[in-house]
């Protein structure tokens, strides 16, 4: 059963994480192999996810620094 680009966009995360039926995952793969638009979409999603996780790591650093400083101040 063929799926549409909209269905790919909606179900991509679910299917990537192993959700849905084997047939659903198969038709997603088949669609991705043929559809440039969805290949671009998947690449963009991946980039966004990598950017977000990089941002999260940066955001954590100053907070841990502040915590360390606070612990240091209190210990004196
Ligand atoms: Zn598509």
Describe it.
With 76 residues, this protein is mainly α. It has one domain. The protein is built from 3 helices and no strands. The longest helix has 40 residues, at 36-75. The mean pLDDT is 86.
Tags for this model:
about 80 residues; mainly alpha; 3 helices; binds zinc ion
Short description:
The chain is mainly alpha-helical and 76 residues long. It has one domain (5-75).
The DSSP helix count reads 3
The major sheet is characterized as: none
Number of strands: 0
Write down the overall geometry: elongated
Portion of residues within helices: over 70%
Bound ligands, each once? zinc ion
Q: What is the radius of gyration?
A: 20 Å
Question: Roughly how many Å apart are the termini?
Answer: 69 Å
Q: What is the SS-derived class?
A: mainly alpha
Name the beta content range. under 5%
What is the topological layout?
Blueprint: H1 5-16, H2 22-34, H3 36-75
The structure holds zinc ion.
